[in-house]
TrEMBL record:
This is Rho guanine nucleotide exchange factor 4. SUPFAM superfamilies: DBL homology domain (DH-domain) (SSF48065), PH domain-like (SSF50729), SH3-domain (SSF50044). It comes from Anabas testudineus (Climbing perch). Pfam families: RhoGEF (PF00621), SH3_1 (PF00018), SOS1_NGEF_PH (PF22697). It is found in: Cytoplasm.
Amino acid sequence: MSCKHVETMSDNIWLCFCQNLTCVPSMVFPLQLISDGSVVYAEALWDHVTMDDQELGFKAGDVIEVVDATNKEWWWGRIMDSEGWFPASFVRLRVNQDEPMEEYLAHLEEAQAGEEGRAGLGLLLGPGLPCKEQMRTNVINEIMSTERDYIKHLKDICEGYIKQCRKRTDMFTEEQLRTIFGNIEEIYRFQRKFLKGLEKKFNKEQPHLSEIGCCFLEHQTDFQIYSEYCNNHPNACVQLSKLMKVNKYVFFFEACRLLQKMIDISLDGFLLTPVQKICKYPLQLAELLKYTNPQHRDYKDVEAALNAMKNVARLINERKRRLENIDKIAQWQSSIEDWEGEDVLSRSSELIFSGELTKLSQPQAKSQQRMFFLFDHQMVYCKKDLLRRDMLYYKGRMDMDHMEMIDVEDGKEKDFNVNVKNALKLRSLTGDKVHLLCAKKPEQKQRWLRAFADERRQVQHDRETGFSLTEVQKKQAMLNACKSHPAGKPKAVTRPYYDFLLRQKHPSLPTALPQQQVFMLAEPKRKASTFWHNIGRLAPFKK
């Protein structure tokens, strides 16, 4: 990767540093200072957003104290009280490390102000182009270059690996190949179409005049196919790990790589690229917007494209979280005694809220204490065991798609002819069923009112985005739940993909290439919890 920020400040405060280390004489500079006990500072070139508690998040412009630089790609650093790993390619080192921090910060502010002033006066960088236009040219060229490289990468995987694997029916089933490679062939077909669109909008003579924002807007819905790939990636790693324990598969995959003349990276490394690629688009568009004048014809489209690709990343993140939750929902159901009717996953995929309420239903109007679990599309209610309070018995469910929620004032309730406090009513749209639910405290009632509103919003959002579970996903989740523990005896979930993280007692070096993260493929270590705490994690109270 070539260094994007080749410009240096006039006062020579910062030294540009990039991933392949071509911008500094050697790694000795930071290592020597650290080993000598000196404090080494670096400035963040780009935002590093992370959800991993072992990585250090920061904003562009933040000053980072470099604690460990022994690895060329990932350094260990500190900002205030926070420490963690960060990509070396996201920072540039300070040259004059001996200057007092206060003087340095003042110096930096002056230098940045000076740069802005010179840019405003039309400082030239390159033959005949103003600074901002030259930088836009660089970003456009990088987008086009990385897109072409990515297409070749996808082609190598599809033709070098998948095509060869399909010839060996004695070694691979179609189901195995689908697990390992996911929908990467679909991604390859889409990316070729996307690249064609970019090529049409690319101005070869004057790249800074290219108008590529519309290409991202046109295909923003198509990018959602990455959701399936990212969600499947943990399963691909597990399946591939099993196969690589057998020598014949190790030799076969290496033969595929050599036959296709691919670089010396293992298959799991190649398969990580689509995950990294969908994370990189918002970064590239943010950089493009930064160097696009508001008067440029492409400005509004680039701005809209950036927001669109951020939304794609958020959607992928949300779908990944939802799919991880279905295993927990399946296990919750398997812990309920006397379950009746269809599985909760047949219609639902999200637990919105849960809690204890007093229930009255017509025609008996008998008061009953029940535990209620509000999912999207339905609400399940259960009875607690008198002796074992952590054991629940299934008692029924309500179809939320055919119910309306009514806020009930304190006092006499006309349908049930009883005095109530902190009550709300669920009535079927046909009017033949009415349920009166009473909370113990006013604030609990308000939480439930918000929860019912959240449930309707969730259902509407899923309709708009087209989110749904496949029959295979539902069946697999229920099958995993049945295997993991017998009914009524909940146990912790174990997932081989996360085992290596759970075994870590000390900070471990990130295995991914330095890349800004939009979502995580590994969840942090969690302490063992009781049944009720599991339910609490599944449906955190919404304030």
